[in-house]
Design brief:
The structure holds 2 protein chains of 2 kinds.
Chain A (H helix, E strand, L loop, with lengths): L23 H5 L18 H8 L8 H53 L1
Chain B lengths: L1 E5 L8 H14 L4 E6 L4 H5 L8 H6 L4 H4 L1 E4 L2 E4 L5 H8 L8 H9 L5 E6 L5 H10 L1 E6 L3 H21 L4 E7 L7 H17 L12 H7 L4 H4 L4 H25 L2 H4 L1
Parallel strand pairs in B: 1-5, 1-6, 2-4, 2-5, 6-7
Antiparallel strand pairs in B: 3-4
The chains are: A mainly alpha, B alpha/beta.
C-alpha cells in the first residue's frame, strides 16, 4: 500500500562529514605536483626496465598492418634516398661557392698589387 | 601584440569555451584575432563547426603557410584548428634540444597579421603546452568549481614558474578565471575561497567569475559563438565583463614589460 506524503517517514541520507576548507598547501602536496618539466629532460636510461622488456616478445602484426608498415617503410627509404641525393648536391654547391670565393679573393689581391 | 595561452592541467574547466568566446569578443572590438587549438582533441573546431583542410601540424611540420591552414570563423577572427596529428608533435620533438621554443620560432615569423593570438591547449603536461607557454608568455587559467580544477590550476602556475626559469623568459600568469560558478552549491564557496588564497600566494589577479549557464552547451551544439547565440545570457554577460578586466590586465602587463621601472614603483 502506498503512503501519502503526510504519513510517509522522511528518508534521510547517511550522515556526511562537513566540507572542510581547501588550502593551497594541501593542493601542492599532491602526488601530481612535481616533475612538471620532466618532458623537457633528455630520455633517461632505465636498465631494469630494459631487462624487463628483453623478455617480452612482440605480438605479430595482422597481415594488413604488416603491409601498411612495409609500404610506409619503403616510402621512408625512398625519401631518405632523395634526401641523400639533395645533400650531395648541396655539398657540390657549397664546394663551387668556396672555390668562387677563393678565386675572388685571389683576383682582389692581384688588383690591389696592380694598383700598387 | 597580445598573446595568451588558456591552460589548466585538468579537463572540463571551460578552456575551449573561454578561448572561443574571448577571441570572438576581441574580434568584435576590432582586433584581428588568431585562435590556435593546440589540443589533439580538436574541440575548438568542433564547437565552432569548422572544417579546415589543414591543421596545426601542417603549419608546423609540413611547410604549409599559415594562410593555407587557418579558417575564418567570424569577422577579424581566424582559427588554426587541431586534429589527432597534433599528438605527433610530441613524438616529433621528443629528444630535440630546445623543443619548448618551437612555437615561438614558428609563429613569431607569421603572426604579424594579427593583433591577438589566443591558444587553447590540452589538459596535460605536454611539450605542446610548454611550447605554447614559451611563445605566448601570458597565461589565463580558468578554474571550475571543484578541487581537481584547483589542483590543475596550481600545477599550471607551478609549471609556468619553472618553465620561465628553465627557458630564461618571463611567463606571466595574467589571471585566474572562475568558471561554471554556481553559488547554490556549498563547495563553490570553498573553491572560491581557495582561489582567493591562490591568487594572493602567486600574486595573480582573480577575475569576475563565469556563472553556470545552460546556453553554453546549447551554443556549442548550435555551432555558434556564445555571444551570438544569446548575448543576454548570464555567461555572455560574465565573459564580456571578464574580457574587459583581462584586457586591462594584459595592457598593464605590456606596460610593465616596456617600462620595467614601473613594476618596482
Amino acid at each position: 500500500m502506498r503512503r501519502n506524503r503526510q504519513t510517509a517517514i522522511p528518508r534521510r541520507g547517511p550522515l556526511r562529514p562537513a566540507i572542510e576548507p581547501i588550502h593551497v598547501e594541501e593542493l601542492l602536496a599532491g602526488a601530481g605536483m612535481s616533475g612538471f618539466l620532466g618532458i623537457l629532460q633528455t630520455p633517461v636510461v632505465v636498465p631494469h626496465a630494459s631487462d624487463a622488456l628483453a623478455h617480452l616478445t612482440a605480438p605479430a602484426l595482422p597481415q594488413q598492418g604488416m603491409q601498411l608498415f612495409f609500404c610506409l617503410a619503403s616510402r621512408m627509404e625512398s625519401i631518405r634516398g632523395r634526401l641523400g641525393q639533395q645533400q650531395e648536391l648541396l655539398h657540390e654547391v657549397v664546394e663551387v661557392a668556396r672555390r668562387m670565393s677563393a678565386s675572388a679573393e685571389r683576383l682582389a689581391l692581384r688588383m690591389t698589387s696592380f694598383a700598387g | 601584440m597580445l598573446r595568451l595561452v588558456i591552460a589548466n592541467q585538468r579537463g572540463g574547466v571551460s578552456k575551449t569555451t573561454t578561448v572561443a568566446t574571448l577571441a570572438h569578443i576581441y574580434a568584435g572590438r576590432g582586433l584581428r584575432v588568431l585562435a590556435i587549438d593546440a589540443d589533439p582533441q580538436g574541440s575548438l573546431g568542433l564547437v565552432l563547426g569548422l572544417r579546415p583542410a589543414r591543421y596545426l601540424y601542417d603549419s608546423l611540420f609540413c611547410g604549409r603557410a599559415l594562410d593555407e591552414c587557418v579558417v575564418p570563423a567570424a569577422a577579424n577572427l581566424d582559427v588554426l584548428c587541431s586534429n589527432r596529428d597534433t599528438a605527433k608533435i610530441e613524438a616529433a620533438l621528443a629528444g630535440t634540444a630546445g623543443r619548448q621554443f618551437v612555437f615561438r620560432q614558428h609563429f613569431e615569423k607569421v603572426d604579424a597579421a594579427y593583433d591577438a593570438v589566443l591558444i587553447d591547449v590540452a589538459p596535460s603536461i605536454s611539450i605542446t603546452q610548454t611550447c605554447a607557454m614559451v611563445y605566448a608568455r601570458r597565461l589565463l587559467v580558468p578554474v571550475a568549481m571543484d578541487m581537481l580544477s584547483l589542483q590543475g590550476a596550481a600545477a599550471c602556475l607551478q609549471t609556468a614558474s619553472m618553465l620561465a626559469q628553465v627557458s630564461q623568459c618571463e611567463i606571466r600568469p595574467v589571471a585566474l578565471l572562475p568558471a561554471r560558478v554556481d553559488r547554490r552549491y556549498a563547495l563553490t564557496a570553498f573553491v572560491l575561497s581557495a582561489l582567493e588564497e591562490m591568487s594572493k600566494r602567486y600574486a595573480v589577479p582573480l577575475l569576475t567569475g563565469i556563472r553556470t549557464d545552460g546556453n553554453v552547451p546549447k551554443a556549442e551544439r548550435a555551432r555558434q559563438f556564445l555571444v551570438d547565440y544569446d548575448c543576454g545570457s548570464r555567461a555572455s554577460q560574465d565573459y564580456l565583463a571578464a574580457a574587459d578586466e583581462l584586457m586591462a590586465l594584459l595592457n598593464a602587463a605590456e606596460q610593465t614589460d616596456r617600462y620595467p621601472e614601473a613594476r618596482s614603483a
